[in-house]
Design goal:
With about 160 residues, the protein is of the alpha+beta class. The chain has one domain: Cytidine Deaminase, domain 2 (3-Layer(aba) Sandwich), CATH 3.40.140. The protein has three helices and six strands, in the order βαββαβαββ. It has helices at about 20-30, 75-85, 115-125; strands at about 10-15, 45-50, 55-60, 90-100, 130-135, 140-145. The chain has a six-stranded mixed β-sheet with strand order 1-6-5-4-2-3. The two termini are about 25 Å apart. The structure holds tetrahydrodeoxyuridine. Tetrahydrodeoxyuridine binds near residues 45, 63, 73 and 74.
Length: about 160
């Protein structure tokens, strides 16, 4: 028997330490939280994806009275991005959230398991790492890839 230790590299940064390109993506993810439709949870999430063609697609969580029908911000953004620009690959995704009090959450928001799996599919399609920026009021976490957010991911291949 042997033990496998899986580690995840996370860079902790402040907003000011980000590149102008990443700052813009963070701004757009924060802005997108205001387009969230979250009357049930009141937890407003925004995502912004930079594509290889230079376009930026944003998404926000959309809830529904039939609870399982709602969609997270990340999946709203990634499905729309690929539906709108099927030829483009994903470069970077930034995710931000506001809590029930309307303030940005203190710690960086992390995508749910389903969103990690969905995003991973587009990283695999791209054949290259998609940078992940998780935004919080105090810190910003930068991960080098979607795969690093989902160790031991499901894959048929
Ligand atoms: N939510 C997201 O939009 N992204 C995540 O990764 C986690 C959760 C949404 C779903 C639901 O509308 C609300 O946040 C509370 O769970």
């Amino acid at each position: 028997m042997k033990k496998l230790d899986i580690t995840v590299p996370v860079t902790v940064a402040s907003y000011d330490e980000l590149s102008p390109e990443d700052r813009r993506l963070v701004d757009l993810a924060r802005e997108a939280t205001h387009r969230s439709y979250a009357p049930y949870s009141k937890f407003c999430v925004g995502a912004a994806i930079l594509l290889s063609n230079g376009e930026i697609v944003t998404g926000a969580n959309q809830e529904n009275a039939a609870f399982p029908s709602g969609t997270c911000a990340e999946r709203t953004a990634c499905y729309y991005a690929h539906a709108r620009y099927p030829e483009a690959t994903f470069e970077t995704i930034a995710i931000a959230a506001r809590d029930t009090d309307g303030l940005e959450i203190a710690n960086p928001v992390a995508p749910c398991g389903a969103c990690r799996q969905a995003l991973l599919e587009y990283e695999t399609l791209a054949g290259k790492n998609v940078k992940v920026i998780l935004v919080g009021r105090n810190d910003i976490y930068i991960l080098p890839s979607v795969a690093s957010t989902l160790p031991l991911a499901f894959s048929e291949f």
